[in-house]
Amino acid sequence: MKKLLFVVTLTLVVALLGGQVLAQTNYPTKPINLIIQAAPGGLSDLTARTVGSVVSEVLGVPVLFTNRPGAAGAVAMTYVKESRPDGYTIGYVPVELAMVEALGYAQDLNPHSFDLICASNIAPATITVRADSGWETLDDLIEWCKANPGKLRVGNSGTGSIWYVAGASFAKAAGIEVNHVPFDGAAPAVAALLGKHIDMVPVSEMEVRSGVESGELRILAVFSSERSQYNPDVPTMKELGYDITVAAWGGFAAPKGIPAEIMAVLEDAFRQGVQSQLFDEVTKANGYSAFYLDREEFTEFAVQQYEFYKELFKELGN
Length: 318
Fold this sequence. Notes:
10 strands; D-Maltodextrin-Binding Protein, domain 2; two-stranded antiparallel sheet
């Protein structure tokens, strides 16, 4: 009986120790691949590389960056989704994570397709016009549009993009007709505005910053819940009576099914990256904002955005 008790006790100890070893995983032991859905040089790329550099320091292994642009981010996100859930392939996921299904760019690709790690950044849309346009306020612009239906040329970064959504949402809320003009990105749309080829852009503060600072452009409103730290004198759409918020946001995600102990390591490392002084300096220098949400908060937020855009695209006829 004593021998049997000893064997049972020893078995329990071994089991407990084994569980402790599993809980205290030595992950990571090799480089982590961070997949970026956009081309080098943009907001997504800058965010992913900045946060990733801090994650590398925290975890003590290299973080390797690979850009896989295409189909509003669906190419890169599909790659991450189909990767092994071992913690060595992570993706930067943009707001289009909540949109690509409704746009028809991918099937079964949405916030439920991943184990989300954390949110990292946000940049609200703006209503931006030329300073010499004669429109001093949003009401001025809307009144002109109602007197000239369909004549306002609104540039965006491609049909179905987040900035197209901003322009279409504005038009719907204001009850006006506009002429949507797609470009291959926000930068050429802003250049067209400066060149007087279009009349308005609904892009981020970051993308119109130089034009605003030079006095060539004027922001009439921002699509955020609170006034922007970069343009505190500009009212929000909600202040002006239009309850719409549209923003480009982003965060990090892992393939579905990642072990809990590895997710805990990743969540802590990416939290440190997003909350780092380096990332704070980068966002402020480039006119956008850090936006940390933990795993549960980010998942809830992304799912809400998914449901919002699914319904919005139905209303917009997409």
